[in-house]
Each structure stands twice: as C-alpha cells, then as structure tokens.
C-alpha cells in the first residue's frame, strides 16, 4: 500500500528526514515511536503533502502511484487521512458543515453521488454514537474551544466518517483520558481490514495494547533506527530511547 | 449547514472569472454627454416632473458646482471627468408593459444570465404560486417591470419606481425626499440629487407588516452611463419591511461612476431591515475597469422604539465608498450595521457606518468583517456619536479584519464623539490571517484550496451572513467564494 524509499525532506531549509525506508502492506498497522523532535510529525506531513515540507530526494509510492505528485486534497480523496497532533481551529465553521463538505468533496472526487443533509445526518449520528461523542459538538465550530481530548476525539470522528484506506495517526492518544483512549482505539480497530493500513505515531505503548501493531519502528534524528514487533514498544517503555542509542 | 455546502459546490462549479461580464444590447435613448443645467432640465423633462422637483434638482446642481470632491477616504483613482459621463439613458419601449408577458424577452434573458434566483425568475415570469418576493427591477435608469403591485396595494403598501411615485404620490415624495440626506449633504449625494434618474420608492402605512420581502435588482448597462439611483423608504408607525438590494454589472474597460442615495425614514415602533449584496464588476487583476461606487445611505429613526438594520455584503466594485448610517433620534431607537466587505486584487474599499445617537436609551451595534486579498486595501471607517441628550445610550462595535496573503492591507479608523456622560461605547477590533495550517487542514480532508478558502472565509463572516434573509444568504456565500477566486496559491 505504501512504499517509502530513501526519503529525505527539509523544513525551513533544515533537513529533518534523512533517508526513511518503510513499506506498509495492506492490512498492516505500523507504529512509530521516537524522541521529541525526531521527525515523526514531519513524516506524516510529508505523506499528506503539506506546503513547506520539501522532499529533496527519495520516493513514495501509494497504491503503486507516485504519491508526491499529488496535491493534498487528491491524496485525501484517494484515501489518506491524517489525524493531526495539533488539530486546527476553524472559527465560524460548524463541525457538521465541515464534515459534510469534506465527505461530499471526497465522494465527488471519486465520482460518487453526494449525500444530502438528511442522509448525512443519519450517517454522522451513527458515528457519534459509536464514539460516544455528544451531538452538540457537531454544532460547534471546528475545534474552537474544544478541550485537548475533544479535539483528538473529533479527529477520530472525522476518520470514522471518511473511512480512509491509509490512516496516519499522529499522537492521537495524547490528551485522551483512559475511557476515551479505549473508545478511540475501538474506532481505529473498526476500520482495520485486509484492505486498509495504518501508521500510528505514539509515545506510549499503552495505546498499542488496544491497537495491536504488526510492526514497531523507532524514528530518531530523521531515520528509522530500529524495527521490531510489538515487544519493541515494551522494551522502549522500560529502557527509554537513551539505552537504544547507546546500544 | 446545507447552505455552506451548496456554496462550496457552487463556487467549485463556477469556472468563469466573472460570470456577469456581458453587455446587453437594448437600445439606449441617451442624453448628450456631460453635465449642465440643460442636462438637469432634460432629465426632469424626460421624467415629466413637477416644477418643485426640477427646482430642487437645480438647487442641488448649483450647490454641487461650489463643492470639491472629497479626498479623505483611503481610496486612490484617476480624477473623474464629470463632463465625460452620460447622465441619462433608458431602454426604448413604446408603451409601459401591462403584464410581465409584455416585458421585453431580452430583459428577462438578462435576469436569467444574472442568476436571479429561480423563484424570483418565476415571479418575473408570472408563474402562479411563485414565492412572495416583489421585484422592482431597475434596468439601467428606468424601472421596467414591477410585480406584486396589487397584493401590496391591498395592504396599502406602495412599492414603485420613484419617478412613478413622483407622479402618483407627490405629497409623500415632496415631504420626505432630501429629509434624511439633504441635497447639500456631500459631493456625490448632491450630484445624485441633481441628476438621479430612477430608483425605488416604498411606503409602508401605519401598523402594516409588509407581506413580502421587497427586492430590487440594479444593473448598470449602457456604456459610460453613470448610475444615479435614488431610493426612498418610509415606514410609518408600527410598520415593518425587509428590503433586499442586489446588483451586478457587465464587464467593460472604462470605470463607471455610481453615486446612489438611499433614504430611510422610520417612525415610532417601526422597523426597516435593509439588506444589500453588491457584486458589481471589480475590475480585472490589474485594476483595469470596475465600478466606482460612491453611495450615501442613511436612515432616520424618528420615533420611539424605531429600529433599522443595514446588512451589506460588498464584494464588487473597483472602489467602494459607502457608510450606511443611522440617526437615532427617537428614544429607545435601535440601529444595527452588519457588514462584510471583501476586497481582492486591486480593489479598494473604504466603508463603515455612522451611528448618531440623539435620543435617550438609544442603542447601536456594529459588526464589520473586512476581508482583504491580493493587493487590495480595505478600510473600516466608523463614527459613533453620542449627543448631549443621549442618556444611557449604548454602542457595541466589533471590527474584524482578515488578511489573505501579505500584499494586502486592512485599516480600522474608528471615530468616537461622546457628549453624553451616561453613554457606553465599546469597541473591539481584531486582525487575523487565513493560516496555511487552516488551509492544509481543510485540504487534508479533501477540499480543494479554493473550497478551503471559501469555507474558512464564510466561517469568518458567519455572524453577518446569518443576518441576511435566507435566499440572499445563499447568494452571498456563493459570492464570498467567487470573489476570492485567484487569491490562493
Ligand atoms: N518550520 C520549521 N522550521 C525549522 N525547523 C522545524 C520546522 N518545523 C519543524 N521543525 C523541526 O523539525 C524537527 C522535527 O519535528 P517534528 O514535529 O517532526 O518532531 P516529532 O518527532 O513529531 O516530535 P514530537 O514527538 O515532539 O511531536 C524538530 O526539531 C522541529 O523543531
Ligand atoms: Mg510530533
């Protein structure tokens, strides 16, 4: 599904990604851990196509296609979803409006008929129920005045609605209370399927108890320095990254 | 929420840069170019006006000759040659149409091209059971089609071209014209008083709630014809009316002057809601062409508890110079000003309001949303004056500016004059930018860059958009997106 080959990228003229190699097959969940400032969010932004994140060399294939040639909205419509580490506020735009606009924009891109307000409402009610989100959140402006945890839940809600093929989760667990963490993880697990894949950035192995990854990678200083299975996360939790770099 | 979605779709489906850029070729019956006493007399004669009105026009003209063009606004443009303008042109028609079937099909075609909402087209086409919006269409300078007249007449509401009101209700026109905006008021209003050609007249009798929203579509058509509309609305005691004004103009290369005057008179316990969507041709990306829009709009709340609200969405024109004002004379009277002003490319907007508090317990609210993109300059200029007798008067002003890109400018110029010890004046102002982060967030969810921008800007304008009547809101949201095309990337 996703093949990252020797990816180098700069931000503000500074090289942050220094040769990433990573292959994610359909059906797999990969977790990425690593110290602050290692370049985890940068990797997710590069994959999503954010302006200012410049790829200097390497390539990325998504479903066999050159991902880097696509605009951010094309990538989204082709099934890449990024749950932001810091979700952005959009004053005056009701969450429901935002979601419906996004949902229909993607359907339109794929040549599917758009849904009307009634249909959409039915659909979104289902999702809010699953994720235990109060409907009044839909009326509020996107992320405006949301608590840290609410913002993260809102990201999961958006993802559940848009049903992406490739989920990129950037520290979605940070800021969630224990119950919310479980609900959010359930949301991700519901999407898990042999056709879908996920890249989950986290600092805590606790999340990986709920969303069990097939692989765990350690990203440090712009490179993947170690890969392993789920047990690597436990190891890191015990010993920290310092032990790793010393080794 | 459905509306905003629709907006995004509509915005996306409009590919032309300026879809209202066409010129209709209805033959014009035009006065010689330039301005003189003879031209003023020509206009008055064309309109078969009574002597008192001609005299009034002439007084205005003579006064205008003594005035100089104001230069205090933050707008810059080549000097207007007032002798290089045609002051009168009218579509040729042998007889006034008795019904819509008799209206020139070419004119109806024009409405279609203008994208007048389907419902209103139905109204124009005379479809039975069509929605209750009365359209007094001002085509160039002469009103051509008036609908729903009978239904309004039953309620005693008068809604007609002002030239007709001069003939049929001279006592009303004579009593109120110039009573809110005197002919000496300002350079452009004075010019308008001398040469106004047409506009709407509306009279709501005591205790009547106007049974429908009244709307007028303005359109500037014949080349180089300055448009001098004059609108007069009178709401008698305890009455209510909602009035919609929307306009578009064809694309052309020469700048066109537009100097309208709108006067509103509101008596005790009466209310006027006046909404405008203005999307005249703004000129091209390089600032060539476009309308010069110098408008004087003023409302006088003459009785207790009188209320007026101005809601405007200004997206068009090369230059906008417009300050819809409220004179709050009656005790407890209320004035509101809700504004969205968008300036893109080389557009210049200098707009705002004046709230003149004279009576006790008068209150006013100003919400201004200014959006600047490209190399545009957008200035909010607002005056709040509390008179000596304005005990416990209150004003609340919120003035938000949004910048798109880094070559545009936003300016806020509040003037406060307070002679009342018990008055409260609050002013809040913010300036923000559409952030790259916000755009990326929307795009990551599947919206194109332009759809993202339209969504974010519509969100910024929400408080004002909500004040518009439903149908207007749809059009306005669409316009917000269209007028920002080309501002991203
Ligand atoms: N615009 C920028 N200009 C310069 N440096 C930047 C810019 N944006 C990010 N960086 C730097 O890039 C590095 C990687 O940042 P990134 O956000 O990818 O880290 P991260 O691994 O996600 O860290 P965390 O665990 O704290 O979220 C950091 O050192 C950061 O300061
Ligand atoms: Mg990060």
From TrEMBL, chain B:
Q: Which residues form the signal peptide?
A: none
Which residues are in the SUF system FeS cluster assembly SufBD core domain? 218-460
Q: Where is the SUF system FeS cluster assembly SufBD N-terminal domain?
A: 153-210
- Per the similarity annotation, which family is this? Belongs to the iron-sulfur cluster assembly SufBD family.
Q: Which NCBIfam families match?
A: PRK11814.1, sufB
Name of this protein = Fe-S cluster assembly protein SufB
Q: Which organism is it from?
A: Sneathiella sedimenti
């Amino acid at each position: 599904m996703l093949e990252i080959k020797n990816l180098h990228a700069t931000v503000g003229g500074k090289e942050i990604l220094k040769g990433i190699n990573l292959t994610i097959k359909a059906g797999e969940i990969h977790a990425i851990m690593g110290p602050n400032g290692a370049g985890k969010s940068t990797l997710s932004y590069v994959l999503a196509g954010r302006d200012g994140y410049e790829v200097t060399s390497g390539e990325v294939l998504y479903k066999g296609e050159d991902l880097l040639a696509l605009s951010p909205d094309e990538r989204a419509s082709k099934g890449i979803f990024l749950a932001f580490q810091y979700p952005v506020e959009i004053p005056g735009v009701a969450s429901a409006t935002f979601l419906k606009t996004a949902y229909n924009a993607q359907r339109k891109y794929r040549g599917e008929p758009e849904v009307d307000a009634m249909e959409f409402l039915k659909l979104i009610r289902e999702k809010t129920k699953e994720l235990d989100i109060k409907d009044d959140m839909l009326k509020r402006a996107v992320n405006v005045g949301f608590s840290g945890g609410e913002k993260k839940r809102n990201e999961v809600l958006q993802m559940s609605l848009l049903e992406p093929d490739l989920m990129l989760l950037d520290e979605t667990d940070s800021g969630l209370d224990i119950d919310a963490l479980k609900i959010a993880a359930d949301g991700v697990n519901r999407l898990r399927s042999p056709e879908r894949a996920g890249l989950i950035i986290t600092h805590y192995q606790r999340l990986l108890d709920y969303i069990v990854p097939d692989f765990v990678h350690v990203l440090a200083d712009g490179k993947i320095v170690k890969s392993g299975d789920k047990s690597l996360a436990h190891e890191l939790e015990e010993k920290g990254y310092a032990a790793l770099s010393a080794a | 929420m459905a509306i905003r979605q629709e907006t995004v779709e509509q915005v996306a489906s409009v590919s032309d840069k300026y879809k209202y850029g066409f010129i209709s070729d209805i033959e014009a019956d035009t006065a010689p170019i330039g301005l003189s006493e003879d031209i003023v007399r020509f206009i008055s004669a064309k309109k078969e006006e009574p002597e008192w009105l001609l005299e009034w026009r002439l007084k205005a003209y003579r006064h205008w000759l003594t005035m100089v063009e104001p230069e205090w606004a933050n707008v810059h443009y080549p000097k207007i040659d007032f002798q290089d303008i045609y002051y009168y042109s009218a579509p040729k028609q042998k007889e006034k149409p008795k019904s819509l079937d008799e209206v020139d099909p070419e004119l109806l075609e024009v409405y279609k091209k203008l994208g007048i909402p389907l419902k209103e087209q139905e109204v124009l086409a005379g479809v039975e059971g069509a929605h209750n919006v009365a359209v007094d269409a001002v085509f160039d300078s002469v009103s051509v089609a008036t609908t729903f007249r009978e239904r309004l007449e039953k309620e005693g509401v008068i809604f007609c071209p002002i030239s007709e009101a001069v003939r049929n209700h001279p006592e009303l026109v004579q009593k109120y014209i110039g009573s809110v905006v005197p002919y000496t008021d300002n350079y452009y209003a004075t010019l308008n008083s001398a040469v106004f050609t047409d506009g709407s007249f509306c009279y709501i009798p005591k205790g009547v709630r106007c049974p429908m929203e009244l709307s007028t579509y303005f359109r500037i058509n014949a080349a180089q014809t300055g448009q001098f509309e004059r609108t007069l609305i009178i709401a008698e005691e305890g009455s209510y009316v909602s009035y919609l004004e929307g306009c578009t103009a064809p694309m052309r290369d020469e700048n066109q002057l537009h100097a309208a005057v709108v006067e509103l008179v509101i008596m005790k316990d009466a209310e006027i809601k006046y909404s405008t969507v203005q999307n005249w041709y703004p000129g091209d990306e390089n600032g060539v062409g476009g309308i010069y829009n110098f408008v004087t709009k003023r409302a006088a709340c003459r009785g207790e508890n009188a209320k007026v609200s101005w809601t405007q969405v200004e997206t068009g024109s090369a230059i906008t110079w417009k300050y819809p004002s409220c004179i709050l004379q009656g005790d407890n009277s209320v004035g509101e000003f809700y504004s969205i002003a968008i300036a893109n490319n080389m557009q210049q907007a200098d707009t705002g309001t004046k709230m003149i508090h004279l009576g006790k317990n008068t209150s006013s609210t100003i919400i201004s949303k200014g959006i600047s993109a490209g190399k545009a300059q957008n200035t909010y200029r607002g005056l709040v004056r509390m008179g000596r007798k304005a005990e416990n008067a209150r004003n609340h002003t919120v003035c938000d500016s949004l910048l798109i890109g880094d070559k545009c400018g936003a300016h806020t110029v509040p003037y406060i004059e307070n002679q009342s010890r018990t008055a409260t004046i609050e002013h809040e102002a913010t300036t923000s930018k559409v952030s790259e982060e916000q755009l990326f967030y929307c795009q990551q969810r599947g919206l194109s860059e332009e759809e993202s921008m339209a969504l974010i800007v519509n969100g910024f304008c929400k408080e004002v958009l909500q004040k518009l009547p439903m149908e207007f809101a749809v059009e306005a949201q669409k316009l917000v997106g269209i007028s920002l095309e080309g501002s991203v990337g």
